[in-house]
Amino acid sequence: MIKGLLENFRAVVFAVLVHLVLLAMLLISLDWRPDPGSAEPQVDVVQAVVVDPQKVEAELERLRDREERKRQQELDRQERLRDQAEQAREAREAEEQRLADASRDLAEQQARAEAERERLARIREEQERLATERREEEQRLAQLEAERKIAAERKHQAEEERQRLEEQKRLAEAERQRIEEQKRQAEAERQRIEEEKRKAEAERQRIEVEKRKAEAERQRIEQQKRREQAVLAMQAELAREEKILIQRRQSLRQRHFNEYVGSIKNKVQRMWRRPVGVPPGLSCTIRVAQIPGGEVVSATVTRSSGNVEFDRSVEAAVFKASPLPRPRDPDLFEREIVFIFQPED
């Protein structure tokens, strides 16, 4: 529409210019000077001028050329404007494409960043899980080390107790030998005194003058008797101490045996599972037969709890606990052990 208006405007301008040229040529051809020799009243004379059609055609051609050049320039300007508009459109499309690519790249980067963030989160979770497991393992190892130290301390205390008892036994044996030696010496002394008494009796009349010496000897003999009585009292005291030592050995053996039976009960307790429907507070007496390696040969309830399911579950727990713990002293091993099983409710 704008192009059509421009073409009409140029046609109107061209027509006006043609008319102006013709008018100018007409005015130039007229003679406007007055005649000085004539006194007569001036008479306006109109002179006709012949217009050269070739000049008019040339002028028109020149105007057409100029108008054509202007039109061509306008067309060139419009072409440049179109080219500029096309370039601007292409630049705008390229910018839009660049922005779309940048937006896509940004979305991909965000997606990669999100994936990396999730990967790092999983790594952190895995590290936290590993750290928790490591702490739990360290706690378990620390507990095992504490239990090992307690067991070693108990073993050390038992060894010290054994050595103390051995030392007491050795001292008691030395004391017994010393007392035996004193008894032997006392017996020899007694025999010697008897021999002296016999000689003194035989020589009583002969050594009447030596009564004072005999009295002194009598006093010495009395002292010897008191020493013999002291020896007898010491022997009685030694016998009493030996009895106490035997009792202590028996008590220590019983304590170790109780610990041995307690370890068996604890393992059976860990292996026992309460059957469904069995009430708490039940207990039974069970006899366990085993071989030296601790393997269970038989398990029999000798005093029932009154609940068959409970009794059978205890017998099953004994077999699950096989092999049973071994005593610290092999002499404490018993092929048959009877104990009361009463689970913790």
Can you give a write-up of this model?
With 345 residues, this protein is mainly alpha-helical. It contains 4 helices and 3 strands, in the order αααββαβ. It has helices at residues 2-29, 53-202, 211-271, 308-320; strands at residues 284-290, 296-303, 336-341. The model has no long low-confidence stretch (mean pLDDT 85).
Output the keywords.
73% helix; three-stranded antiparallel beta sheet; 6% strand; 4 helices; mainly alpha; 345 residues
Structural topology:
Layout: H1 2-29, H2 53-202, H3 211-271, E1 284-290, E2 296-303, H4 308-320, E3 336-341
Antiparallel strand pairs: 1-2, 1-3
Number of helices in the DSSP assignment: 4
Strand % is 5-15%
Cα distance, first to last residue? Answer: 104 Å
The major β-sheet equals: 3 strands, antiparallel
- Tell me how many strands there are: 3
Instruction: Tell me the radius of gyration.
Output: 71 Å
Inertia-based shape: rod-shaped
Strand order of the largest sheet: 2-1-3
Query: Which runs of at least 5 residues are low in confidence (pLDDT < 50)?
Result: none
**What letter string, H or E per element, gives the SSE order?**
HHHEEHE
Percent helix among the residues? over 70%
The secondary structure category is: mainly alpha
